[in-house]
Amino acid sequence: MKIGLIGLGDISKKAYLPVLSEKEGIELVLCTRNAETLNALATKYRIQEKVHSVEELIATNIDAAFVSTATEAHFEITEKLLQNGINVYIDKPISLSIHETERIVQLAKERGKIAMVGFNRRFIPKVRELKEQGKPSFLLIQKNRYALPDYARRFVVEDFIHVVDTLRFLMDTEVQDVKVQYLIKDDMLHHLVVQLIGEECTSVGIMNRDGGVTEEIIEYSAGHHKYVVNSLVETTHYHNKEVSLSSFGDWEPTLYKRGFYDLVDHFIDCVENGKTPDPSIEDSLVTHEICERIVGMIE
Q1: Domain that holds residue 69
Q2: 292 and 144 belong to one structural domain
């Protein structure tokens, strides 16, 4: 299978390129306008084919593409790929605009092509294990950053979207209501608290981007058991006075712990075998729609 990787920034260097370059049966084509980065990474990973534009990439007859550019470029690139019959994996979010997001979902359906959004937390082993513990009655996710307030739309749609999607994944029930509290100073959103309410389940998502530490914590309560996942790699199980700890072995690769191996494998398997991804592009649209609703309640 021939796959294009568009955009060779931080996430591509840390995640997609290392994972894709290890896979057998994959012919990888690199694409970026930055000639120095393109040549350096092609040499490092011994990749023969490299191009400077999406048009050149399409001409190489790729089967699928990973879109890992700046968010502002996602829509134009993804639209062009789908229009040319190419399956796409898109780093979250699809777009900062809900209308552009809806257009991509519709275009993928019209062209009969696979489109998938990169919500890697759904593929993180310690997160997936939570769903094996029974249906939750209460969920709490905190995803905080050190001293990094932002404008509401970018804060929510580009970053908090991970919290919304992970809550939806773990709730495993339709979101019936959304409640929002927030703090804005000088037009910048500093922190956000959101409740997603479903049948017999309440979930709370918190993001403080003006805090003292960058951290991510998930609390999952099912029955009389509580599970706390810290930094996505370590789980503490509480049951009354009993406490147990579960973590990865010393040799487990970071990209496996972060879900990227399973995520990439799933997308490629869907392309090879004509399967619908999980999450489907329609399911990912629901996450985008909830984020748009949150932005509307803030602005």
Answers
A1: 2-113
A2: yes
Domain boundary among 113, 140, 163: 113
Identify the CA nearest to 95 among candidates 291, 248, 263: 291
Q: pLDDT tens track of the chain, all 299 residues?
A: 999 999 999 999 999 999 999 999 999 999 999 999 999 999 999 999 999 999 999 999 999 999 999 999 999 999 999 999 999 999 999 999 999 999 999 999 999 999 999 999 999 999 999 999 999 999 999 999 999 999 999 999 999 999 999 999 999 999 999 999 999 999 999 999 999 999 999 999 999 999 999 999 999 999 999 999 999 999 999 999 999 999 999 999 999 999 999 999 999 999 999 999 999 999 999 999 999 999 999 99
Cβ(95)–Cβ(161) below 8 Å: no
Bond before 277 cis per omega within 30 degrees: no
SS3 assignment, position 249 = coil
The answer to whether position 266 is within a domain reads no
Choose one of 90, 113, 136: the last residue of a domain. 113
Q: Is residue 55 part of a domain?
A: yes
CA-based nearest residue to 123, from 288, 277, 292: 277
Could you give the CA distance from residue 88 to residue 6 in angstroms, rounded to a whole number? 11
Q: Would you say 233 and 257 are in contact if contact means Cβ atoms under 8 Å apart?
A: yes
Q: Both 35 and 93 in a single domain?
A: yes
Counting the structural domains of the chain, the total is: 2
Distance, CA of 136 to CA of 289 (rounded, Å): 23
